[in-house]
Amino acid sequence: MATNTESTQHLEVPKKRKRKLPTEVSIFLVLIGIALLFEVLGWAIRGDSFLMNPRRLLIMILQVSIIGIIAIGVTQVIITGGIDLSSGSVLALTAMVTASFAQQSDYLRAVYPALTDLPWVLPLLAGLLVGALAGLVNGALIAFAMIPPFIATLGMMVSARGMARAYTDGQPVSMLTDQFTWIGSGANPVIIFLAVAVFFHIALKYTRYGKYTYAIGANPQAARVSGINVRRHLVLVYSIAGLLAGLAGVVAAARAGTGQAGMGMMYELDAIAAAVIGGTSLAGGVGRIAGTVIGAMILGVMLSGFTFLGVDAYYQDIIKGAIIVAAVVVDQYRQRKRNKTT
Amino acid sequence: MEPNNYSETLNKDRAGFLLEVERVRKTFPGVVALDNVQLKVRPGTVHALMGENGAGKSTLMKIIAGVYIPDQGEVRLNGKTLHLHGPLGALEAGIAMIHQELNLMPYMTIAENIWIRREPLNAFGMVNHDRMNRMTETLFERLGIDMDPEMDVRRLTVAGRQMIEIAKAVSYESDVLIMDEPTSSLADREVEHLFRIINDLRAQGKGIIYITHKMDEVFEIADDISVFRDGQFIHSAAASDMTSDEIIKLMVGREVTQMFPKEEVPIGDVVLSVDSLSLDGVFENISFEVRAGEILGLAGLVGSGRTNVAETLFGVTPPSSGRIVIDGKEEVISSPHQAMLRGLALLTEDRKETGLFLGLSVIENMEMAVLRDGYTRATFVEQHRLDQECDSMTERLSVKTPSMDERIGNLSGGNQQKVLIGRWLMTKPRILILDEPTRGIDVGAKAEIHKLITELVRNGVAVIMISSELPEVLGMSDRIMVMHEGRVTGFLDRSEANQVNIMELASAPVQPPVAHD
Ligand SMILES: Nc1ncnc2c1ncn2[C@@H]1O[C@H](COP(=O)(O)OP(=O)(O)OP(=O)(O)O)[C@@H](O)[C@H]1O
Ligand SMILES: [Mg+2]
Q: What is the pLDDT of residue A7?
């Protein structure tokens, strides 16, 4: 039988791959809108410009970078239909470990007096390794022990924080080498953040790794039956999320010049918020890194803007919470419109 | 036969229509799903709605059932225009619908699923489970269904779930009952059962709208027939005034052969041999062989374990004992991933549960299984090459979609099925297992799929085909293995097999199982 030309032609729609306006564009407009709002409020309340201040913008984007690096991993986890609550604690643990391998030799109370003045790669690798291991444990618990992601990463959140404290009995790890702190100096965190973002944006879009990640989130059973090794892939995704939390820990320690067990408190929630504001669906199967980057920027602009206007920190949190919920409401609305049912 | 507006028989007692649909139009982005269509259902009749995949049948049914709001046009029930704002309104007005896809909650019991939102309450406003179970039993007694109301729905087979959907729809006691391909997952025996239920409802004066792609069913059950093509109303007449060929011609707009003729191809060496395969509590002692170029049909009633055997071969549920030998080598297959490494492919039975990535696009759904076989250069997916192959497969299977980037959830059921068939054909398997491959697929596309399968076996692929449609099994298979309650009850050669001896083996077990050749 010949192909059904009559019936397909009737629709008069070409079978071309048509590109729709990506959701990132609309989120980006929201970002611009918020920034302009602060600009207006700045002139109205403080008689000063919010945007025309390079120093403030640099500080803002530096703050965004560390959360942003975490959020890139968390986004991928959420796309698989999971969640990662451990990233803030893993950041703290890696900051401690990485700092302990980056101390100067003239510091008398170094954690490892024999291992001081090491080249910067070693503490970096140690940090990445710790992060990846934490992620690996998360992934293994979820994929093989069948523990729900919420519970597994909640456990990791609590114990990684504990390990960070136990590592030096709660003492900060300071006096780090110059070559190590260089990692966090100047605009380096921003460069690292954007490089990681571009890398994973491409990986999600153009590689098998990315396609499988979406498939597992969309329908894990169908993914398995399509021959995808779902368990192995989940372990990989959680390990990458851990690795990125580790990277964030290294950058944070290098920037602060110290490792402290209290670092990264609640960062996991900011990371999840950045992903959700950026259009990642907690139901799985939907999300993009570009959206998450913009989502993180929105959080950064808000933090910086409220501080600039002198809004009390408590109120900042209240407004932030409302914006996160609003983002989800908008997302739901968009989904419903896509399905167009009553 | 020239399509006229609608026949006189239907026009005569115009005042007496139970349900009237007029000038209904419905568009989706990029698609005109329905364009100025009509449908008139008389009380006490079964009205069959026929049309190719994507003709707009389900869309119109969803409009009648309040799921979609039409862009224009009206729906009248007993002469009164309906203004529906949701499925609830339709139920209250007296319209119930069995959807093409199953919509049950797997972790709730059968009774809870049936009476959801209508649970009997006790004096404290709490659900009275005893009463609900008794109500279910009464309903089941009336419908002749034999199931435990307290069983979890997830433990039912697809056919079992379909029966629950039917019972649930009947329990609303509505005037109009819409059935969108209710038999696509039912075997003959359950179909007969459903028809008894339908006859009962018809005798009570209800109007039943019945959608199916199976011609024989239409003539057995329908009083009136309406045909749609590409979102347009084409023709309506009494079933007795139409023939199967006429209907197909109206549906497709030209002549088609109903089923692709079987082509004899040389049969080669044994590719897959299965020896006393068992899965505890599900099936036992299954042994058979499939050769290159051979189509082995698997027949049996629903619940006979055919799907379970297929899933075990493919590593979805690894066996508890037995041997699987591929090309003379014993293999341990513990996951679909490993099965695919050994050249197997399985089109699963439940497309919503284990087939579709509903939120993803047509192309993502189609390419997902083949991605693992190359299609990457320096870790980047060769999207361009994939696009081309998916495009040609889409064309070959005449998948009707506005674009390859359309979300697959927006395609009609039959077109979703075609995409899944495409997914597995693209993996170029050596052993292809098809579980209800043409479920929900229209006559024209079915012939095309049969042709594709024939092409595969000509190239030496071994095919195992499960189908509840006996004519399809009889028409395509070289040999037929019949199962009953998890055991093989016999093998029939193409030359000796017919509906009667298959049904005999499928219902009355022969002990011990007949050894195969
Ligand atoms: N929610 C939706 N969004 C976009 N397009 C849709 C939607 N629902 C249906 N369509 C389109 O409308 C057309 C008619 O679909 P419909 O499901 O009514 O077909 P059908 O006649 O029931 O086919 P089948 O026999 O395959 O079930 C198809 O082209 C389909 O792609
Ligand atoms: Mg349909």
A: 39
pLDDT, position B514? 45
Work out the minimum CA distance from A330 to partner chain B, whole angstroms: 18
- The answer to whether the beta carbons of residues A19 and B241 sit under 8 Å apart is no
**Range(s) for CATH 3.40.50.300 in chain B?**
19-254, 269-506
> Nearest 10 degrees: CA dihedral of A33, A38, A44, A49?
-110
A4 neighbourhood in chain B, CB within 8 Å = 52, 252, 398, 400, 444-445
> Residue B444 above 90 pLDDT?
no
Average of pLDDT values for A188-216? 94
How far is the C-alpha of B438 from the C-alpha of B426, rounded, in Å?
A: 17
Taking CB atoms and an 8 Å cutoff, what residues of chain A touch B257? Answer: 1
Nearest CA to ligand 1 atom 17: B412
Domain range annotation of chain A: 62-328
Q: Which of B24, B26, B28, B61 most suits a substitution to test ligand 1, by most atoms within 8 Å of the C-beta?
A: B28
| d(C-alpha B188, C-alpha B201), whole Å | 20
Q: Provide the residue type at A58 as one letter.
A: L
Nearest CA to ligand 1 atom 31: B411
What architecture does CATH give domain B19-254? 3-Layer(aba) Sandwich (3.40)
At A314, the amino acid letter reads Y
Give pLDDT, residue B2: 43
- ipTM field: 0.79
CATH superfamily of B269-506: P-loop containing nucleotide triphosphate hydrolases (3.40.50.300)
Q: Has residue B81 got a pLDDT over 60? A: yes
Name the residue among A6, A211, A340 with its Cβ closest to that of B381: A211
Q: What is the mean pLDDT of residues B375-379?
A: 78
Which B positions 149-188 lie with beta carbon below 8 A of chain A? none
